[in-house]
Each structure stands twice: as C-alpha cells, then as structure tokens.
Write a structure and sequence with these properties.
Order of helices and strands: EHEHEHEHEHHHHHHHHHH
CATH class of the largest domain: Mainly Alpha
Helix content: 55-70%
Oligomer: single chain
CATH topology of the largest domain: Hypothetical protein af1432
Number of domains: 2
Distance between the termini: 38 Å
Structural class: alpha/beta
CATH architecture of the largest domain: Orthogonal Bundle
Amino acid sequence: MIEKAKILAVDDTPASLKLLTDLLKLEGYRVHSAINGETALKLATTHPPDIVLLDIRMPVMDGYEVCRRLKANPATQNIPIIFVSAASETEDKVHGFELGAIDFITKPYQRNELFARVRTHLELNRLNHHLEELVVERTNQLLSSHRETIVTMTRAASFKDESTGCHIARISFYCTEISKELGMDAEFTDLIRYASPMHDIGKMAIPDAILHKPGGFEPEEWRIMQTHCEVGAKMLSGNNSPYLVMGAEIAAAHHENWDGSGYPSELKDNEIPLAARIVQICDIYDALRSPRAYKGALSHERSVEIITTGDQRTLPSHFDPAVLNIFKRCNERFREIFELNIAQELLPE
C-alpha cells in the first residue's frame, strides 16, 4: 500500500531533514534519512526506497551527483527521484530533469503540495510496475503458446520419418551446448533450443519414395530433396514469433557451407545466419552417427574425424571456424547426448 511506501529523504541541513522526515512519518510512510550524498547512496543500495526526496545544494557531493550515480547503478536506476531544493532557477530544474529526476519541489514547500506530489509519483510508479508485470505475464503466455506450437509441429514432422524423432530432439540439445560455449546470451540460447528442431520441417513436402530411398538420388530426385530448405522457410515465414523467425532462417540455410559450396543459395561466411551455422554442424554429426536407409551408423570417433579432417562429402571448410573450434572442444558432450538416446517425448517443453 502507498501508506507504507519507503521514502529516502536527503538533506544536509539537520533541521530541514528532521522536519521532512517527521512530516512523512506522520503520513504513514517509512522513512530513511541521509545527511549527505554518500550516506544516501549507501541507503539506496542497502534499503531500496520507493522514492527519493533529494536536496541539491550539499557539500562534497551535491544532489545532482547523487542523482547521476543512482541512475548509473542498475540496482537503483529505476527509483523515482524528486528534487526538493531552494534552487529555483529554470536551468536548475532542467539540469535535474536531464539527470533523470521526475519532479522538482521548491523550498520552502507547502506541506499539502509535497504530499500530493509524493502520492502522485508513488501511484504512477506502482502502476508502471503493475503494467510491467502484466507485459511480462503476457509475454510468457505468448512464448509458452509459441513453444507448444513448435513442439506440435516438430512432432508432426517426425511422423513423416520415424528416424527423425530422436534426431530433432538431439539437435536441440547439441545446439544449446554450442550456443553456450560460444558465449551467446540467454535469449539466443532459448530461441535456438526451440527453433533448431524445425530445421528439416520442409521434408514434410518431400515424397516418401525420395525421402526413404535406400540408394543415391538421381539428379531430379536430388533437386527435389534440396527444396526442403526453401519449403521449410516458407512454412515458417510470415510470423512474428521470434522462434519461427529463427526457425525460418535455420530451415533456409542449414545446408549452406562457410566456403559457399552449399545449397540452396550458395551463401558463404557471415551471409549464413549464425543459428543456421550452428545447426549445420550439429545436424551433420547426428546424421553421421545415425543409421539411414542409405548408410549405416558411424562411431563418435569416426564422425568427429570426418567433421574435423574431412572425407569425400564433408570438409572442415564447410563450417564456421568458430563453431568448428567449439565442436572440437566439446564434442564429448555430443557423444553423451547421443548415447542417452533421447526419446521423442523429451523434445523441449
């Protein structure tokens, strides 16, 4: 409740500070008092107030400097500050507002005016916090809905090819490991965790006779197989969900190569979205480890050897060097993830 709001009163004149403190306590506020700027900064950190009433003309550290430091500290930057000062020139007030203060009360102040402004700003601050909470709640609801949609879509895609159920789940975990090792932030890591399983969603449009063909592809069959990238990107595009935006980028470009020899657009280097470059190496590792209609499963050691030294189809030059270095460093985690044989039911939730 506003009656129990915490206020930090700052004034270098003991009599003025006591008067202000007593008045505020009579109104039901919890008040901390500071006789100088240094004490004010300590109290604002150790006992964060709901609002600060701050004098300007103080020795050693004036109110402007106190305000500047409060606004520069992430722990205190959102605390509303009202200057209460005998400084009444327009430039004094403008400078205070430029530093981040929300109001300016000129001494000697009227008691009713002081209380009215304090109540108003406390109420505005309370409403702002409530609005922020509503936004966070709504955002979390939307993200949860997006994630549920993604899990449903990827599970539907797995029905097209029974061998991909565990594959798409493992891709999510591989990509999370690479992203963390690259030092990507929590937002990127969360996005790729849910977006990466959609990398092959375009295969839903590939005829079964081609998708499950045990031997090599004829030229026309290979052309059709390659269309899964563009089809997947189209399926996921036109949506403002950050998961689907990244999913579309991954679907379109996860078969592009760093040296420009990939498909479908022969992108190279940083033309390829980072998320697609991460998925590429994870996808190839898991494909090498997994049995397919046209090949047997390879060991972890042989799969790592192919990725890091190359064979007739895969070359180190195909991979982003930074991503390849991370893979070299943490490929034992890939072995652990694969050997856990993550079930389709363990897709990210």
